[in-house]
Every structure is written in structure tokens, then in C-alpha cells.
Design a protein that fits this description.
There is one protein chain. The chain is of the alpha/beta class. 47% of the residues lie in helices and 13% in strands. The chain is built from 22 helices and 16 strands. Strand 10, helix 11 and strand 11 form a beta-alpha-beta unit. Helix 1 packs across helix 5, helix 3 crosses helix 4 and helix 11 packs parallel to helix 13.
Amino acid sequence: MTVACIGIGIGGVASSAIGDAFMICRGPANVGPSWIDSQTIEAEVARFEMAIGLAGEQLRNVRKQIPDDAPSDIAEFIDTHLLMLEDRALSSQPISLIRSEGLSAEWALQQHRDALVRVFENMEDTYLRTRQDDLDHVVNRIMNILLGEQDNQPDELLGQIVIAEDLAPADVILMKNQGIAGFITDYGGPVSHTAILARSLGIPAIVGARCATKCLKHGERLVLDAATGIVLADCDTAILAHFEARQAEVISRTAELRQRGAEPPVTRDGRAVQLLANIELPDDVALARANGAQGIGLYRTEFLYMNRSTPPTEGDHFAAYLAVVEGMQGRTVTIRTLDLGADKQPAGSNLNPASVNPALGLRAIRLCLKEPGLFQPQIRAILRASAFGPVRIMLPMLTNVWEAEQAERLIRQEMLQLDAEGVEYDHGIPIGGMIEVPAAALNARAFAQRLDFLSIGTNDLIQYTMAVDRVDDELNYLYDPSDPAILRLIGQVIKAGAAEGVPVGMCGEMAADANCIPLLLGMGLREFSMQPAALLDVREQIRGLDTDRLMQAIRSLFDNIESDDIIRLFEDSSPDT
């Protein structure tokens, strides 16, 4: 009987893998209470310090194995852990516990780790969970050395799918070099360093599959479908044959669609559509271009803050933006200013993180206006990058026009400073805003009169409109992009843009939803931005749609809008109709 585990799929370049399971017994290290003789305290301190030194040596050896042509971000994952090992904040408290209470090195480290984890326990933000993952990876490495445990990882993992409770970035790099087909972990999230690394390296992976190490068996044949986040085990020959055929079909179809990538995305009735890419790292540009992106519709710059202990400098920002601008070779790059704040704090920040509801707190443009010292280096870097190719500035989480005005004022100040320094930049750089707060959608006309373009961020717009956390499994029935309230808000933004002659795009997940695309085209949306992997299929779907028919259907739909009517429209709007 086939067994299935479900987690969060990390697709990378490839989306699926078939291989034998290789179980690695490595997860959170927990030890019981233990004390030492008072005569051996200093020897225990020396043993603890030796373990930290050896852990650093291991990571430096891993760093040397990173290929010269690997993305620059990969080495930064290892550097992050090295910095934590070198930070006295990690080692001083365990040493103090060894000396003051006579704890063993293992028990002192475990106590300190538990104390640090309690700081994270009430923080639901994925950015801070990433920091907890880093702590666990570093502590586990030290603990394994103290316990004298050896990994059961062989020298070769060619074609195998690794299963573990958790994997550190260093593990993933080594396994990539050993030829793994993919990996599955019990823990982790989509923006953990391990997940980001898997995507950068093109490794199919599933993270957060809580029962993987319990339900799956070493050596059994697995099917890992990163597109859906599902792994199948104990499959019969028919199921394996099906997935092998699907893999071959996907490879063939991708090659065919890429050959047609130069053809513009035009609907059956001749309407041109803009297909842009959402990216998180400069290295995502390669896949965006390969899949025919006409530009970057959303560059999430907060990932610049994730792999470091201090905020990025203007030079750090500029280097990343320049790599994207040059990589897109003349296509427009839309850079979203940092979307951090509340309990998602910038590295090295002393801001007060306290907030009853972080999603509604001091974040994004609100944080930038309150702390212009964070905003200014980024704005200067974006402006400087605009001298090398077409760039747009996009402001996240606007609520009222005053925020847009204040942000523009700060941008103009930096322009004047660059003028005084004789630095080149695009003096007419477009400044736009994300419409993801219901108040902004309701007031979209005023924003359209003020800004150069608008982009609908449906992920948060749905969350705020429906009063539901988008990652809450108990309430996912409410997270519905086809709800009439959501569609009315989206329609209002599109109409506001059309009335003022301002481009309106969409950069939320809804933009790549095959069910929603016919509806959005019928509502007048002509700019879609999505993850690079989705571009090929969306382009093909758009070529088969007739916008005139869809627009007529939308007009009658909104006269008497009901969810059942919307779903029926989705079903009746396939490319074959």
C-alpha cells in the first residue's frame, strides 16, 4: 500500500525526484542532566572550547568545497554559522555554567540552547524562525562533537533521497556534491536557509514533513513531488512508471516551451500581456530569463538581511541590485523596498519588536518612515543601479497617500544628494506602490493619481480582507482568492489604474493561479508577476484565451456576483473553449 507524507515543496529548478531513501539520524540533539567533578572543571571548559574550534574547522572545510561558479549566497550561509560560532554570546554562558554549577559541557550547552529558544517561542514570523534554525544547526554540530557521535552519511549519495529531521546548509552543500536526487526533512519552512539553498542549488526538496522520519524507511523507493509537497513511498511499478513518464514529459514540455519563449505572450484575440518574475536572490535571474520573463515585477530585497549579523551596507545593496539589473539585460527590474519590521527585525536592529499582532505592526514602509537610516542606504543603492538599466521603486504595504508622499520626499532628498555628489542615476525613475491593504484598495484612485504604477499584492490583501492568517491550516477555507469581496477590491484597483492611465500589475500568488488567470484577464489585468518556474505554463495558458469573451462574461458576472458563478467561470474558461 502506498504511503504518503506531506510537507512544503521547495521546487528549485527541478520539481520532482525518484530515488532510494537514505535515512540520516541527525536532528535536534538533546541530553539529560549531568554534572562533573569539581577537580575537572577547567578540563571540561577546555573540552567545550575544543568542540567549538573543531566545529569551526568543519565548516571552513565545507566552505572550501563550494565550487567557484556557485552562487555567492551559498558561501554566506556557511559564513553565518561561522559568525555564530565565533560569537562569545554562544560560548560564554555555557562556560559560566560549567564553572559556577559544575555542569557537563553537553548539559551546559543544552541549557543555554533551551534558554535562547524560549526567546523565539512566541514569535510566529518565518524570518525569525530562520534564526532559530541557524541556532539549532550550530548547537547540534557542537553537541555531536561533544558526544563523539559519527554521522551515518556515506561518501556517495548519488541518486538517493535523503531523509532527516533537519539539515544544516553545510549538509546540503556536501550532499549536492555527492549527487543527491533530493531531500525531505521533518522540520523547516519555505524561507529557512536550508530551503533557500535547495532552491538556489536546484535540488527538489520537501521541508516540514513532520512524519517523514517515522513513516519512511531506509532503502525504499520514493517519489518526491516538490511541486505539491508530497512524497510517496512503497509505490507499485505502475505508480513509479507514471511518475517517471511525467518527469520525462515535464522535461520535454519545458524544453519545448522554452524554445517558444521568445514569442510574446499574446492572447488568442491579439491582446498583449506582460509576464514578469518575482525573485528573492540575484541568482534567480537565470531561471527568470530562461523561462522568458519580460522583466522583474517583484524583487524581495529583505533576503539581503537574512544571511548576516549586521544590516547590509549601501555597497551590499548596490552589488545585489546591479547583478539583477545587468542580468536582465535591458528588461525592467522592479525593486521592492524592504518589507521588514514588527517581529521580523532587520539584522543588528535595536528596534522594539513588541507587537500584539506583528502582521499589523511597525513593518514595511511604516518602518522605513520611522527609521530612515534603514531606508536611505537602500534608496541610494536603487538609484545608483538605475544608471545601468531600467529600474522601478516599489513601496510595500501602503495604507494612505501620506505614506507615499513621505516616501517620495525621502527619495527626492537622496536624489539631490546624489546630484551634489555627481553620481549618475535615472532622474525619471518610476515610483510605485503595492496595494495589499484593503484601505489602499478602496482608495486606489488617489494612489493612482500620485504614483507611477500599482501592483496588487494578493497574498496580504486576501489575508487582511478575510481576517485570516494565510498559513493557518484551520482556517484555510477562508483564504479564497475567488471570494466576491476580494474580486471587488481587485476590480476597483484595476479600474482606478485605467482611469488615471497608470499601469496595474499583480505580484501575489493569485497571478500564477491557472483558475484565476481567465478571470483577471477579463477584469482588465495585463501585467502578471510570478515565480519564474510558473512563467512557461502561464504563457501557454494566456495564448489560448480570448479576452473579449472573458470581459463580456465579467460584466455579467459582477451584476450578480456569487462564488458559484465565479467557479463556473473558471471552469468554462479553459484554453479549449
